[in-house]
Write a structure and sequence with these properties.
10 strands, globular, TIM Barrel, about 40% helix
Length: about 290
């Protein structure tokens, strides 16, 4: 098993010092990767239901300092040498695909091939409206978005003709560093997400998921993969349990038995100082590293 950490890119520790310190501490303690979430403009009034809490309420107030996902990962990568950096998750509907492909390819070139891109469909209608993106089409657009990113990163002359995106007649360089380009994962756990993983993704990256639910979803995913001539062996499986599971030995073993190779821990923002936050990273390392590859 490998372990990752969510970066404090929102809230009281959304600062250059904290991001660099978190990333360096995580690398020194043996974590595999650090991850950044994605929110661009937080509405004053949110009526959309947050799908990961029983009360349906989104917990960040609109005045929260929320850093840009890709720029934050660039800062973390510049402060480190080895640790991978990833989006958890980038909301496809909020980002122009060509601009995003350029930013991610640039990030990958600058960090020497350490980038992972997990993409999600999003849930907050209000942010789609702010950014002028069609909310009702977000599922099909996200599937096509994944295919377009891969095309931009691998083709010489760009020629992509989809339902939502059409681009042709130009070249797109530099390409990402890795031989297999930047891994493209899908976040979420709905049936639509599982179908998208089977059709267009290199990996599945569910959030707020406990092992028992993951086991049920994997059986469903296996059937969709078969429709595309693929198996679970073709999918890199990670999980970010957040509040749905404590990362003790039995739970880690349960995830591992299901094929999970990367677990991402969410650190708390309830600290009086950066020192307290970094102490929590050290405690997590003491808890998790005995089970790391």
């Amino acid at each position: 098993m490998k372990f990752g950490l969510r970066l404090p890119g929102a809230g009281p520790f959304a600062t250059p010092e904290a991001i660099a310190a978190y990333a360096r501490k995580a690398e020194a303690l043996g974590f595999d990767s650090v991850w950044m979430t994605d929110h661009i403009a937080l509405p004053v009034n949110v009526t959309s239901r947050y799908p990961y809490r029983e009360d349906g309420r989104f917990f960040w107030p609109p005045e929260t300092p929320y850093l840009d996902a890709i720029l934050t990962l660039a800062w973390a990568a510049a402060a480190t040498q080895r640790i991978r950096v990833g989006t958890s998750v980038l909301i496809a509907g909020w980002h122009h695909p060509v601009n995003t492909a350029k930013a991610l390819a640039t990030l990958d070139v600058l960090n020497g091939g350490r980038t992972i891109c997990a993409v999600g469909t999003g849930w907050m209608r209000e942010q789609f409206e702010i950014l002028g993106s069609p909310f009702e089409q977000r599922g099909s657009r996200t599937t096509e978005y994944l295919k377009l990113l891969r095309h931009l990163w691998t083709a010489d002359v760009i020629d992509f003709q989809g339902e939502h995106f059409q681009f042709s007649g130009f070249k797109f360089y530099p390409k990402p560093v890795g031989a297999n380009s930047i891994p493209l994962w899908c976040g979420g756990k709905s049936t639509g997400v599982l179908r998208r993983v089977a059709e267009a993704a290199d990996g599945w990256h569910p959030l707020y998921i406990a092992p028992d639910e993951l086991a049920r979803k994997l059986r469903e995913l296996e059937g969709y993969l078969a429709e595309h001539g693929r198996t679970l062996d073709d999918i890199e499986l990670s999980a970010r349990p957040v509040t749905q599971a404590s990362l003790d030995k039995d739970t880690i073993d349960h995830y591992a038995g299901l094929g999970v190779r990367l677990l991402i821990a969410d650190t708390s923002f309830e600290h009086d100082s950066l020192r307290g936050a970094l102490d929590e990273v050290e405690r997590l390392a003491d808890q998790l590293m005995p089970y790391a590859d």
